[in-house]
Amino acid sequence: MNHHLETRVSAFSLAALVTLVLMGSINQLATSPAPEQLLAHADRGTVAQQVVIIAKRAHRG
User: Fold this and answer.
1) Full 3-state SS string of 47-61
2) The overall pTM is greater than 0.70
3) DSSP secondary structure letter of residue 45
4) Number of Cβ atoms within 10 Å of the Cβ of 61
């Protein structure tokens, strides 16, 4: 009985640790500003691309 409890507590602790590290990494990537060199490079060569989607209905009959 005690061995099963230790196994579950260990698994839960490891899952919690992995989840917190993963969420912290995602937060760091989402909130960190981009380097100014990348932003300056992106502004120079801005290219617009248009996508046109033509919807067609199947003929019922």
Assistant:
1) CCCCCCCCCCCCCCC
2) no
3) T
4) 3
Give the 3-state secondary structure of 10-30. HHHHHHHHHHHHHHHHHHHHH
Q: Which amino acid is at 7?
A: T
- Six token digits for residue 11: 């698994």
Residue labelled with tokens 């932003």: 39
Angle at the Cα of 22 from the Cα atoms of 33 and 11, rounded to 5 degrees: 165
CA distance 31 to 41: 20
Note the pLDDT tens digit of each residue in 15-45.
Answer: 999 999 999 999 998 888 777 766 666 555 5
Specify the residue for token string 């602790």: 13
